[in-house]
Structures are given as C-alpha cells and as structure tokens.
Amino acid sequence: MPELSVVVVALDDEQRTLLQVLVDGTSVARAVHSCASFPMATGDPVVRRIESANPDVVLLDVPTENPNLALRGIELLHAQMPKCALFAIGNMNQPQVIVNAMRSGACEFIERPATTTDLLEAFVRLTASQRKDHTQESRGKIFSVVNAKGGSGSTTVAVNLALALQAAHGNTALVDLAYLGHCALHLNLKP
C-alpha cells in the first residue's frame, strides 16, 4: 500500500501532536504538516499552506465547544481541494455535527479519542475506494465501425473517429480488420 501524506488541523496543541503520532504509527501514512487553526476564507494562509503540502488526507479535529469553525473549514477545503480526502475527528454523541461534517465534505468521521487502529481502518477504506475508482477510470472503450457494403465510407469514419479520440483522450489504437484495409492509406503510412 502506498504511503499517504496527511495534514493535521487541530486547535489544541496536545491533540494535534497526538494525532500526528497516531498517523505516523499506522505505517501507511505520515503527517507532513500541521496547522493550529482552521481555514476561514478562500484566500486564507492556512488553505495555502495545506495546498502547498499537497496531502492525500486532511485530518480535522472538530472541537466539542465550537464545531461550526471546523465545519466551515471542511467546507472550504472541500471546495478548494476536491480530490483531497477530508477526515473529521470528534465526539460521536453529537449526531448533528457528524451529519453536518459529512454534508460539508468529510468522507470519514472518526470517534474521539482516536486510535491508530481507527485511523488505519479509515486509510485502508480510502485507498480501497481510490483503487476501485482508478481501475474504473483506466478501462478502455471499444468502438466498432462496420460498413453495410464496400465504398460506404466506414474507413474514413473509423480513421477520423480514432484521430478525434486521440486528440481528446490520448492513447488510441486503430485496428483495421479488413483483409486489404485502407487505414494506413488514410493516415499516409506504409504498412
């Protein structure tokens, strides 16, 4: 499993240090940066510091006494960094905070006090879902151009379709299954 980079955001110094130790203890992730305040606005220096760290995961500690500050931070980070996974850590006895955290963009809500096992399970779920998404994205597609009779222009359509797909999406293979195919001629190639 590849190592994940994690940024820890917590107002409390002890909690921030503890979360960094727990993240490093999973041996599948490492804390690359930590912040002592939540982002407040789009141009906030906290957002810029987190973006510059280019993390795979941002771990946000939701304080019990003022959860709205953390929820606003989750919302801002989700808008600024949509590909970054956001994990919230908080008390499970506040169901509305959990719901609001998920609505703001958090993909995991971990119970406080968190353990290395809790974080490890969350990281494993994240990498499994990313792997699943990646394999679905990387699958190719097959397009067939078949003619009803010779001279109807299917080779021209196939060649132009292949060129358009290559320009839009990159690697493309054009296979002419006709015994005396003319794709090479259309592409000005010598077979």
Briefly say what this structure is:
The chain has helices spanning 13-25, 45-53, 67-80, 95-104, 116-137, 154-169, 183-186, and strands at residues 4-9, 29-35, 57-61, 85-90, 108-111. The chain is an alpha/beta fold and 191 residues long. The protein has a five-stranded parallel beta sheet, sandwiched between helices.
Describe the structure.
The protein has about 190 residues and is an alpha/beta fold. The protein folds into two domains: about 5-135, Rossmann fold; about 140-190, no CATH class. It is about 45% helix and about 15% strand. It is built from seven helices and five strands. The chain has helices at about 15-25, 45-55, 65-80, 95-105, 115-135, 155-170, 185; strands at about 5-10, 30-35, 55-60, 85-90, 110. Strands 2-1-3-4-5 form a five-stranded parallel β-sheet, with helices on both faces. Helix 3 (about 65-80) links the parallel strand 3 and strand 4 (about 85-90). The longest helix has 22 residues, at about 115-135.
How do the strands and helices of this protein lay out in sequence?
Elements: E1 4-9, H1 13-25, E2 29-35, H2 45-53, E3 57-61, H3 67-80, E4 85-90, H4 95-104, E5 108-111, H5 116-137, H6 154-169, H7 183-186
Parallel strand pairs: 1-2, 1-3, 3-4, 4-5
Helix pairs in contact: 3-4
The number of E-state strands comes to 5
Q: How is the largest sheet built, in terms of strand order?
A: 2-1-3-4-5
- Biggest sheet overview: 5 strands, parallel
Find the CATH topology of the largest domain. Answer: Rossmann fold
Domain tally? 2
Name the overall outline: elongated
Report how far the terminal alpha carbons are from each other: 44 Å
Number of helices: 7
Low-confidence stretches: none
> Per DSSP, what share of the residues sits in E-state strands of 2 or more residues?
5-15%
Structural class: alpha/beta
Helix content: 40-55%
Instruction: Report the C-alpha radius of gyration, rounded.
Output: 25 Å
